[in-house]
Amino acid sequence: MTLTMTRDAKWMHVIAVFAFFLAACAPNMALMAQGLESQKAIDTIIGSDVQEEQASAEAQPERIIAAIENTLATTSEVRKTSNLEKVDIVFLPDAAENGLPPEIDAKFKEHEKEVVDLRKELEGNAMLFHAIDSRAVLMRDVVAVEFDGGKSVIIYAAAKPSR
């Protein structure tokens, strides 16, 4: 007894084999993605000059408080930002060790929901997320963000530099 296949059945067979091949290769597709292990990859994704500095939260509370008070507008700005010349991450090591100074902490608690929303927007902005992540700053440590003119941003983090 011989089986004969119609032309449509042959194509269905070819498509099934091709689909099986794609499914077998799918686990390896992640290996082809651009990783963040190399500095060149990070620089390409961020596309901006990322600088770090350390400051005392107690030394400039007015500026940090103003940034916290402006969180709602800043969140909207983060959502729209796709190109910056400079990203400045200001580490606040004293806040990492001892907590925020009382006046900043009170303002932070007053705007906590807005800061949580800001952190979510930072996670959703690939450029800013990778700038923050490349300096080993956890999103939960971001206290405030301040846009300084049109092409630069300052991110305040209650963290210590990793280097």
Please describe what this structure looks like.
- By secondary structure, the chain is of the alpha/beta class.
- It is built from 8 helices and 4 strands, in the order H-H-E-H-H-E-H-H-H-H-E-E.
- It has helices at residues 7-25, 39-46, 61-69, 71-80, 93-98, 102-110, 112-124, 126-134; strands at residues 49-54, 86-91, 142-147, 152-157.
- It has a 4-stranded mixed sheet.
- Helix 3 runs parallel beside helix 6 (102-110) and helix 4 (71-80) packs parallel to helix 7.
- The radius of gyration is 24 Å and the shape is elongated.
- The relative contact order is 0.17.
- The model is unreliable at 29-35 (pLDDT under 50).
Secondary-structure map with pairings?
Elements: H1 7-25, H2 39-46, E1 49-54, H3 61-69, H4 71-80, E2 86-91, H5 93-98, H6 102-110, H7 112-124, H8 126-134, E3 142-147, E4 152-157
Parallel strand pairs: 1-2, 2-4
Antiparallel strand pairs: 3-4
Helix pairs in contact: 3-6, 4-7
Describe the structure concisely for a colleague:
51% of the residues lie in helices and 15% in strands. The chain is α/β, with parallel strands linked by helices and 163 residues long.
Tell me the distance between the termini.
75 Å
Poorly predicted runs of 5 or more residues: 29-35
- What is the general shape? elongated
- What percent of residues adopt helix (DSSP H or I)? 40-55%
The secondary structure category is alpha/beta
Helix-strand pattern: HHEHHEHHHHEE
Q: What is the number of E strands?
A: 4
Using only C-alpha atoms, the radius of gyration works out to 24 Å
| Strand line-up of the largest beta sheet | 1-2-4-3
Helical run tally? 8
For the biggest sheet, the summary is: 4 strands, mixed
Portion in strands:
5-15%
What's the average pLDDT? 82
